[in-house]
Amino acid sequence: MPLRDHFRPPLSEQRPWESFHSGWINSIADALNEALPEGYFADAEVHAGATAEIDVATFGEDADTIPSAAPSGNGPPVAVLSEVVAPALSIDVAFADDFEVKVYRELGGARLVAALELISPRNKDRAEARSAFATKCASYLYNGVAVIIVDIVTARKANLHDEIMATLSPSPGEQAGDDRLYAVAYRPIRRGSRSQVDVWPYGLTLGQPLPRVPLWLSAVRAISVDLEATYMHTIQRRRLG
Asked: Domain range holding 41?
């Protein structure tokens, strides 16, 4: 199934891109759970922006209804703020959209080893949003978590691979450019005394099939993510023909 443009008519008028992204990320998670080695599992996570919300008008209104302590099972009571304290400072930030699959290793408790991110238009929209997404991916890599990013967004011009590389290194090398669609696999690895991130870029083209991309579970072990098969599965399940 050749890659289609989900962000412009006629397809954007038939199905919202959020629905397709959600379906695709779940198809990828299902496919990974069928192929991952014993002791690993994949979970899909989907949300847009921040997960916590508060009405400013609630500050101070319910202070009398909040107890000063609450029971905690058989242990001692847990202290609870008796009044809501206003912050000293509030700043505007951009929270990254999450259309991602996280892969965990169960040995010794669930430990995150890899993440696959489907880029959204909001990830590319503003400088703050681009920085938030790049910082999230760079944080994964700094903590030894492998990453794949997939960008099929045609409605915004920005290259988040370039943003990630600039976040990781003051001299990231050649920039890919704003107009390119792509998938990129990243592997954090230590070679002797050097900490490095290996990069595998794949160009994507509308009207062409999608590639298989390596998702690294460790420095020496990877699983192939079949973007084409999962994309086709999602197209069929969403009845997009």
From this structure: 11-49+92-237
